[in-house]
Amino acid sequence: MALFKRLRDLTMANINALLDKAEDPVKMLEQYLRDMEEDIKDAEVAVAKQIAVEMKLKQQYEEASELATKREQQAMMALEQGNEDLARRALVDKKSVAEKANDYKQQYQNAKVTADDLRHRLSEMKDQFEEMKNKKDTLKARHEAAKAQKQINEVMSGFGTDNAAKGFSRMEEKVLQAEAEAEASKQLYGSSRSLDDEFKELKKGSSDIDDELAALKAKMGK
Fold first, then answer.
1. How does 135-162 read in b/e, with b if 16+ C-beta sit within 10 Å?
2. Can you tell me the distance from the alpha carbon of 82 to that of 76, in angstroms, rounded to the nearest whole number?
3. Record: fold of 2-157
4. What's the CA gap between 187 and 221, in Å, rounded?
């Protein structure tokens, strides 16, 4: 039995952990508010019924009280007319009606206390619901901010590291390699020129200087 209980506890713990992980805070808050709305609707129905009972008992109490007063007045009228028997019957009925009035009054007072309590509790429920609605908006904003912060933290944690840094390093090596190859080809070209090519270049340079020197002499009249 202990083993089965242990397995059951572990299973329930795993299920609860999965549920906690799967819960979307915003969706759960909205669901809680919907549940509260349903509770408020049920409470409103209960309060309405209790108010109806209160009003009915109040009406019965008032009607019985008025009838008791009426019977007393009728008894007085009968005595004034010298009809003591009629006055006696009116007083008997007055007593019976007065007892009912007292009973209705007690029931009405109890019903009113209950109705007032239900009204107060319903008002508290509505106040709490409004508070939760406002709090939901705040929590929703905080949740969105937390998700955005988490997302940017995850991006920043891998920014400029590993693949990107290695990629930059490889490209830098390629550029250095290209530069080295260009320099090597330049040197190779210079070493591959023939002796005649070098003299032609030298002669070309000397000819330019000779021409410039001759022009300068002519300009000076020499």
1. ebeeeeeeeeeeeeeeeeeeeeeeeeee
2. 10
3. Helix Hairpins (1.10.287)
4. 46
The C-alpha angle 124, 135, 116, rounded to 5 degrees, equals 5
- Helices 84-157 and 25-80 cross at an angle (nearest 10°) of 170
Give the pLDDT score at 8.
54
Q: Would you kindly state where each structural domain of the chain is located, as residue ranges?
A: 2-157, 196-222
Amino acid 7: pLDDT: 46
- DSSP readout, 112-177? HHHHHHHHHHHHHHHHHHHHHHHHHHHHHHHHHHHHHHHHHHHHHHTTTSTHHHHHHHHHHHHHHH
Q: How far apart are CA 69 and CA 76, in angstroms?
A: 11
Walking along the chain (222 residues) 10 residues at a time, the average pLDDT comes out as: 50 49 74 89 93 95 95 93 93 94 95 94 92 84 80 71 69 82 71 62 62 78 66
**Per-residue model confidence (pLDDT) at position 105:** 95
The number of CA neighbours under 13 Å toward the Cβ of 51 is: 11
For tokens 């019965």, the residue is 60
